[in-house]
């Protein structure tokens, strides 16, 4: 159902049962899947690819040009996965020549005033709380949760199932399965409650805890800790995910917490 007070470009591809509320603008080269609701005063610009059963609330701007001075008008896109909810005044910018796209996965929740910059890749089932600001080229794994008013530096990677405290300044990579907090941002344990909710067994959670004891609480640097992890712990998808994440980190990972307030050396 399209309201007469909305503007929809005739070349936009919109499924029959999409609801578009008044005063919304939908540009050309836009695709919107079945069952999606587009609230009033939403702006959807060229290059948007929005999945099925999404909800986009008033004031959101999807697929605006990237805020990158190197952008030269190349044709790029934004992908929004199925069942994702985008709340009031969220902005999701198109990609640049780097990835040519910005991606927000399925079943995500982007709360009010979140900004997702160019060339970001956000996995499935992620939650970005109110006013989280995501700089360009950031990658966030599945099921990650970022607390409100946090700011993520460009090129940072956040691992799957990580949970980050509100108000955090995220300057370095956050490994999978952990909780992170304090300033500067440090490891404060594994996300055991979240893991249990997602079906991880007590045995698997204990294995992940042991892995991070070696990595962050043993006093070893990261290279030595990874060698020890591979020596002591049997291969598993979770072990290999963490080891590969640490070894491939471009910005370096957050430090482990210690009682004297200092992190472990990297």
From TrEMBL:
Residues 173-254 form the UDP N-acetylglucosamine O-acyltransferase C-terminal domain. Keywords: Acyltransferase, Lipid A biosynthesis, Lipid biosynthesis, Lipid metabolism, Transferase. It comes from the Bacteria. Pfam families: Acetyltransf_11, Hexapep. InterPro entries: Acetyltransf_C, Acetyltransf_C_sf, Hexapep, Lipid_A_LpxA, Trimer_LpxA-like_sf. NCBIfam families: lipid_A_lpxA (TIGR01852), PRK05289.1 (NF003657). PANTHER family: ACYL-[ACYL-CARRIER-PROTEIN]--UDP-N-ACETYLGLUCOSAMINE O-ACYLTRANSFERASE, ACYL-[ACYL-CARRIER-PROTEIN]--UDP-N-ACETYLGLUCOSAMINE O-ACYLTRANSFERASE, MITOCHONDRIAL-RELATED. This is Acyl-[acyl-carrier-protein]--UDP-N-acetylglucosamine O-acyltransferase. It comes from Hymenobacter glacieicola. The lineage of its organism: Bacteria, Pseudomonadati, Bacteroidota, Cytophagia, Cytophagales. The gene is lpxA.
């Amino acid at each position: 159902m399209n309201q007469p007070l909305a503007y929809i470009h005739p070349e936009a591809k919109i499924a029959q049962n999409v609801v578009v509320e008044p005063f919304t603008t939908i540009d050309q080269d836009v695709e919107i899947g079945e069952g999606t609701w587009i609230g009033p005063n939403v702006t959807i610009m060229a290059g948007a690819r929005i999945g099925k059963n999404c909800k986009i609330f008033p004031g959101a701007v999807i697929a605006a040009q990237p805020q990158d001075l190197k952008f030269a008008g190349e044709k790029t896109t934004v992908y929004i996965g199925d069942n994702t909810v985008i709340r009031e005044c969220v902005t999701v910018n198109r990609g640049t020549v780097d990835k040519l796209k910005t991606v927000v996965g399925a079943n995500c929740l982007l709360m009010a005033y979140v900004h997702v910059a160019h060339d970001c890749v956000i996995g499935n089932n992620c939650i970005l709380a109110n006013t989280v600001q995501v700089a360009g080229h950031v990658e966030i794994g599945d099921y990650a949760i970022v607390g409100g008013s946090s700011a993520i530096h460009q090129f940072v990677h956040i691992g799957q199932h990580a949970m980050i405290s509100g108000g955090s300044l995220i300057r370095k990579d956050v490994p999978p399965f952990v909780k992170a907090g304090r300033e500067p941002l440090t490891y404060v344990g594994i996300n055991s409650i979240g893991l249990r909710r997602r079906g991880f067994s007590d045995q698997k959670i204990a294995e992940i805890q042991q892995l991070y004891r070696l990595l962050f609480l043993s006093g070893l640097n990261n290279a030595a800790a990874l060698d020890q992890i591979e020596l002591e712990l049997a291969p598993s998808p979770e072990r290999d995910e963490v080891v590969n994440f640490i070894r491939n980190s471009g910005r370096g990972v957050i430090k482990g917490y210690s009682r004297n307030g200092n992190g472990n050396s990297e």
